[in-house]
Hints:
This protein is of the alpha/beta class. It is 44% helix and 15% strand.
Amino acid sequence: xxxxxxxxxxxxxxxxxxxxxxxxxxxxxxxxxxxxxxxxxxxxxxxxxxxxxxxxxxxxxxxxxxxxxxxxxxxxxxxxxxxxxxxxxxxxxxxxxxxxxx
Length: 102
């Protein structure tokens, strides 16, 4: 059975690079897909944002990287249970039969 992994990074910009490198090197799924969700801010200015994007691209394909705005992601992450039970499409997927660990 393939093992899919989703990594959600809600971290200060100065540690994104190190964490992304470690996740890319040691925690990626070998039999399924891996996704990296990066919550902004993505650096302090254009240059630091470019350095971060380059680092992310060195460890993940662009199709595996999702960048979200802090304020758009905050409510979703805080209300995962509400999201699960309010949207019946998630209920059969987010149960003990499909989610091994969090």
